[in-house]
Amino acid sequence: MATANWNPWHGCHKLSAGCQNCYVYRADARHERDASHVYLTRSFDFPLKKSRDGSYKIGSGSLVWTCFTSDFLLEDADEWRAAAWAMMRQRSDCTFLFITKRIDRFMACIPDDWGAGYPNVQVCCTVENQAMADYRLPFFAAAPIVHKSIVSEPLLGPIDLTPHLGTWVRQVVVGGESGERARVCRYGWVLDIRRQCVERGIPFRFKQTGAKFEKDGKLYRIKRPLQHAQARKAAINWP
Hints:
By secondary structure, the protein is an alpha/beta fold. It contains six helices and twelve strands. The longest helix is centred in the last third of the chain and has 14 residues, at about 185-200. The two termini are about 20 Å apart.
């Protein structure tokens, strides 16, 4: 499947523990930009942009990674979101995926014609620790969304997802934290979430180790280019 990146707006506000070492803040800091300043980007209407031959620049059938330099449900974007939903609806030939820490705002942010959810929109809810899992996942479970996945990245501690792992969950994705100030991700936490998923028949993916990864009592410092590769080498994705 072809993929594309669409960041209709940029900037965000730190919300919970998982935001502490946000990659957007790190990237903006390198360019002396304020990542808390939220603004529309030049790519706002990218899904509707066409090439000279009249074809869409984002090809039909593409998976569109959406709003990865902000949060799609951010309060600052309330006035722009309706137009973004409309573009997703118009490009029903593509699949749009976004990750949010603000799932508690979801019902206040959907368009009037949302119904049971747009079939071409996938929503992932981030839960970095037990407190956020217990707070966010009940909202996520109740929300009318066709495709739902749970993302525990950065994984900051052991999480018992069993009260929330119903048939509505499409997949659980787990990963450590990147960056120089990354907090430790322990392999035991990853394996325990995998066990929970396997027992309930929920697909599981170990996405990345993070920069500091502890296994069998030993701490490994893993360079960014190797973090995804090392996770794949673990060969624990299921099924």
